[in-house]
Amino acid sequence: MNNGENCKRRRKEGFTADEDDGENDDSCSSGRETKKKDLNGIITSLVLLDEQEKRDREERNDAFKEEKSVMESTHAKETRTMLEFHSNLNDYYSKIDETDRVKRKKSRVKAATVVATASNHVAEDGNGKSGSGQQRRLWVKDRSNAWWDECNRPDYPEEEFKKAFRMSKSTFDLICDELNAVIAKEDTTLRNAIPVKQRVAVCIWRLATGEPLRLVSKRFGLGISTCHKLVLEVCSAIRNVLMPKYLQWPDEDSLRKIKQQFEGISGIPNVVGSMYTTHIPIIAPKISVAAYFNKRHTERNQKTSYSITVQGVVDPTGVFTDVCIGWPGSMTDDQVLEKSALFQRAKNGGLLNGVWVVGNSGYPLMDWVLVPYNQQHLTWTQHAFNEKIGEIQKVAKEAFGRLKGRWCCLQKRTEVKLQDLPVVLGACCVLHNICEMKKEGIDPELKIEVIDDEMVAEDGLRSVSSLKARDAIAHNLLHHGLAGTGFL
């Protein structure tokens, strides 16, 4: 029994002797002191633990702040480096352009000086000493253009002309007439201007064959840089002059006919277009390489691939009614759609109220975008719907196959710079439309099957009402005997 208990017991029993009281008081005091020391020790330990924990927490906070500061500093440094690189690259290109401009100016001044000197000599010798007095011209390398002269003859075989330029002579002449006012040049004192037909032929042959510029140069008897310049000039003219005329969204009367044709193909009402997105291979760009990296094509072909996208909407005849060109190849189909002008017009202006544009499973189901069912276990009705909507998807996919088949430059990486490529691709789409409208057939050997990996959209459902509308269309197809049984 401890001292505290003895103290209590003795007080209870009433001991009052002086000697005993002294002993009892000493015993009680000793117990209280012991307890007090133990309590103080515990409190001290707790205080020490609390201080230690506070120090540890402060050290962790300091370490976190230091790590955060290092990360922010690294990020800021990387950002500055990228901005400096981009700025230096722009300065580099600007200097090159300025140097080229100065060189061209000097060459023109020098040539003009030579011509003026020659003219003065001719004037001084005008009393007959100079002989013929023939006007001098700027010296150019003598190249043979026999191949083009042969193609340009009126009696040149139609089949051979179409094989070279992917179109008949009449369609080619139509394009030349349309572009004549924009691309025609006048003869100068130094040299004769290149004729409009030859200008257009250089561009179309380059797009049709995809051959390098050195071979284009040999074919047409022109310089390599001249051919490159002609291709870009004619493509720009096609985009600016012909695109508003031959590639535009249909009017009300045309939309009515398109609905009837698509309904005749599939049985699905109110369809105004078939949509598809393809990839065009490019050389790895110097800026934003990761954005143009095409992971799916790289994995399938076992070869590093970079690309840009072309999204197109076509009518039942395969004519493009809307295109969106130039977004990086790493973007999915639904991301490209959201960046397109068609999406913005449909969102802001109600361009597509009450009608459908059919896409594959890479696009989301929306109030105006109709896509197939993509879940694993489909009902009979859903299978039938997917079979019929696949017939509409096939129209766009085959149109892109003819586009790439006609213009072989789209099948391989070209020498065109990335910033100029959308102009070239837009020109290819316009020329495709002209050929389709003029019923220009394509050689079966040129037809290709486009292969673009479809990825299901992350947010595949954007509208509950469209989900109900799709179900209603699917049931109508099956119960009215419009759906086939090819899926069985």
How would you sum up this structure, described in words?
The structure is a single chain. Helix content is 60%, strand content 7%. The protein is an alpha/beta fold. The radius of gyration is 40 Å and the shape is flat. Strands 3-2-1-4-5 form a five-stranded mixed β-sheet, sandwiched between helices. The termini are far apart.
Give short descriptive properties of this protein.
488 residues, alpha/beta, five-stranded mixed sheet, 5 strands
Give the radius of gyration.
40 Å
Distance between the termini: 94 Å
What percentage of amino acids are in beta strands? 5-15%
What is the β-strand count? Answer: 5
Structural class estimated from helices and strands: alpha/beta
Q: Averaging pLDDT over every residue, what do you get? A: 83
H/I helix tally = 16
The main sheet orders its strands as 3-2-1-4-5
Approximate helicity band: 55-70%
Q: Looking at the structure, what is the overall shape?
A: flat
Task: Report on the biggest sheet.
Answer: 5 strands, mixed
Low-confidence stretches: 15-21, 122-135
Can you write the helix and strand succession as a string? HHHHHHHHHEHHEEHHEEHHH
What's the short story on this structure?
The protein is an alpha/beta fold. The protein has 16 helices and five strands.
List the helices and strands and how they pair.
Layout lengths: L2 H11 L4 H107 L21 H6 L6 H8 L3 H15 L12 H14 L3 H8 L3 H23 L5 H15 L4 E12 L6 H4 L2 H7 L4 E9 L5 E9 L4 H7 L1 H8 L7 E3 L10 E2 L9 H27 L14 H17 L26 H16 L9
Parallel strand pairs: 1-4, 4-5
Antiparallel strand pairs: 1-2, 2-3
